[in-house]
Amino acid sequence: MSRLHGENLTLGYDQRVVATDLTVAIPTGSFTAIVGPNACGKSTLLKAMARMIKPRAGAVYLDGAEIATYKAREVARRLGLLPQTSVAPAGISVADLVARGRYPHQRLLRQWSREDETIVTDAMAATGVLDLAGRLVDELSGGQRQRVWLAVVLAQQTPILLLDEPTTYLDIAHQLEVLDLCADLHEGGAHTVVAVLHDLNQAFRYATHVVVLRPGGMVAAEGAPADIVTAELIEDVFGLGCRVIDDPETGTPMIVPTARRGAALRT
Amino acid sequence: MSTLITGRVVRLRGYSVRFDPRALAVAVGLVVALAVVSVFSLGTGDFALSPGAVIDSLVGDGTPIADFIVQTIRLPRLLTAVLVGGALGASGAILQRLSGNPLGSPDIIGFTYGSATGALIMITVVHGSMMAIAGGALVGGLATAVLIYALAFGRGGVASRFVLVGIGVGAMLLSANSYLITRASWQDALAAQAWLFGTLNGRGWQQVILIGVAIAVLFPIAGYFARKLALLDLGDDMARALGVGVDWARFALIVTSVALAAFATAATGPIWFVALAAPQLAHRLARGGGPGMMTSAWMGALLLALSDLGVQRLFPDTQLPVGTATGVLGGLYLIWFLATRRREGRA
Fold first, then answer.
1. The complex's ipTM?
2. Do A108 and B227 touch (CB under 8 A)?
3. What is the reported pLDDT for B35?
4. How far, in Å, CA of A49 to CA of A193, rounded?
5. Do B23 and B34 contact (CB within 8 A), yes or no?
6. CA A76 to chain centre
7. Does residue A134 or residue A263 have the better pLDDT?
8. What was the pLDDT predicted at A233?
9. Multiple choice CATH, B3-55+80-343, 3.30.1780.10, 1.10.238.10, 1.20.810.10, 1.10.3470.10
10. How far apart are CA B118 and CA A222, in angstroms?
11. DSSP letters of B183-252?
12. Which residue in chain B is spatially nearest to A122 when comparing CA positions?
């Protein structure tokens, strides 16, 4: 079952085509990770699924209807997107920023209902930023700021969350903190989470479903990490020799790149 | 009442309205100041009237002489100042917020030069009436905006490019305007020069109606789209993700802003710096908050009414155009603005 899928997508910007004839379905209730080498169209695919860019050919379907036929607000009530870069206006408080996530549910004379207040409070509690509510976003650390942005998207109350490289620019501890948060959201049962991720081992550890794109934007493999990840797949897609072992913590597949001079060092 | 977000919320049944109490207080303060300036402006001059007599006349209780002085001579000029100032203040507030640049005002970006080009063509080539000149200014301003918009956004550009492209186009139009004046007869050149100093001299009910209708139509449109400015601040992608039709909202805001400036310029000729300074001054008083369109409009109205009162009473014999006064005030403001910004280390 899939509420969000793309069929025969050709995607690109201006003259450059980054993906052709791409067909992807996001399993409902999954934590899907999109991985692949640089410039394979991961973020482009995510943007197309969120209706940020229009496919050259093919179509994205949301709840059975072509996404282009929805009103912008209607899409924003079903599907939230955290872009790679977002700007917080100077001098805005955490609560005020998170409150903007309520926009798709507000109207000219329904600017701040009690429901809005509850939902924004819950979103900040879920991401652990409720204590920071009155602080200025400018003053926060990178990890805190990313949690605030996740709260903005959560306040939107969409069943589907699309996250474009949510761990970029964060140190390893904060990366895991954000991924744990995504896992919590997914396990809560209310959200389908789709994230573009760079770190393969993190993707295989956290995601329940992985879409591996190869350069040129074709799906090389998709499915549960344990079912699809092999050394041949990684070699084929990334051109990287590696061994696949069980993650000692979780038992999920974990790749260990082959050392270029490994044999020499060992002897 | 709310402690979570800033501002106050008033709820009634299913409806709720959020507002910033400080911005509201600033707006009320500006309205009161404007009322005082207005009564003073209507009551002083060659024929002095007491504030009581002015108010009597305004509510339809005045003597015939007071009615003539207030309603025929002084009120249309004052109303033109208030409405033009308000239109310029709102126009500047929208454009500065949209471009994210405190210099992003219609007089800097070149719309005003475009209006001048339109008006100068009417004066020196077509020899049109006062209304034709106003029409030329309107068309010139809007056409310039379309040109700048196409050059800056044609291929997915960013808002900051808008200011730079606008300054370039403005410089070109300035040369075009000079060229038009050099080609004109000396009578036309004088008339053109006079028009280029925006003035309230000789402005009557015609101008009040022109700018009043423009405001009645454009303010609600601008107010509706101004709510989306808070979302546009988060970047285009995030705004889109939250369901804002980004391109359409930006286009509508630019069009209303440009149209307000163009109508203002059509009514009085170019009046510099009100659109530049009013939003910044209002912003400093209200300390941020909402889009600031209304506080900025009231600030613009007050600035222009005050400037006009100044030129009328300080230089009663010369009929000094109000544009020269706002020019001097604006220059001082700009120097102060740049100096304080440098001190804050943001220049």
1. 0.87
2. yes
3. 95
4. 13
5. no
6. 16
7. A134
8. 94
9. 1.10.3470.10
10. 62
11. HS-HHHHHHHHHHHS---TT--HHHHHHHHHHHHHHHHHHHHHHTTHHHHTT-HHHHHHTT--HHHHHHH
12. B4
- Taking only the tens place, the pLDDT of each residue in A49-77 is 999 889 999 999 999 899 999 998 999 99
The dihedrals phi and psi of A80, each to the nearest 5 degrees, come to: -110, 145
Q: Which tens digit of pLDDT belongs to each residue from B188-203?
A: 888 888 888 888 888 8
Chain center to CA of A262: 35
The pTM assigned to this predicted structure is 0.86
Closest CA to A99 of A133, A76, A64: A133
Task: With H, G, I as helix, E, B as strand and everything else as coil, classify residue A146.
Answer: helix
**Shortest Cα distance, chain A CAs vs residue B1, angstroms:** 10
Residue whose entry in the numeric block shows the structure tokens 């020196």: B124
Q: Where are any strands of DSSP class E within chain A?
A: 2-13, 16-27, 31-35, 57-62, 65-66, 79-82, 160-164, 192-196, 209-214, 218-223, 242-246, 253-257
Mutate to test the interface with A, among B10, B224, B234 (most CBs of A within 10 A): B234
Q: Give the integer Cα–Cα distance in Å for B82 and B69.
A: 18
What is the H or E stretch that residue B173 is in? helix B159-183
Which residue out of A100, A105, A106, A112 would a mutagenesis test of the B interface target, given it has the greatest number of B Cβ atoms within 10 Å?
A112
Q: Quick one: average pLDDT of A91-98?
A: 89
Mutation target to probe the A interface, by most A beta carbons within 10 A, among B1, B2, B5, B240 is: B5
- Express each pLDDT in A164-208 by its tens digit: 999 988 889 889 989 998 999 899 888 999 999 999 999 999 999
Least confident of B140-149, B203-212, B331-340: B331-340
What confidence score (pLDDT) does residue B3 get? 62
**What pLDDT is recorded for position B151?**
84
Residues in chain A within 8 Å Cβ distance of B225: none
| A192 and A4 Cβ atoms separated by less than 8 Å | yes
The gap between the terminal CA atoms of chain A, to the nearest Å, is 52
Residues of chain B with Cβ-Cβ distance to A135 below 8 Å are none
Q: What is the CA radius of gyration of chain B?
A: 21
What residue spans define the domains of chain B? 3-55+80-343
Minimum distance, in Å, between the CA of residue A39 and any CA atom of chain B: 19
- Are A83 and B241 an interchain contact pair (Cβ–Cβ within 8 Å)? yes
The secondary structure of B147-158 as a DSSP string is HHHHHHHTTS--
The position carrying tokens 């120097």 is: B335
Contact B9 A111 (CB under 8 A): yes
CA B333, chain centre distance (Å): 16
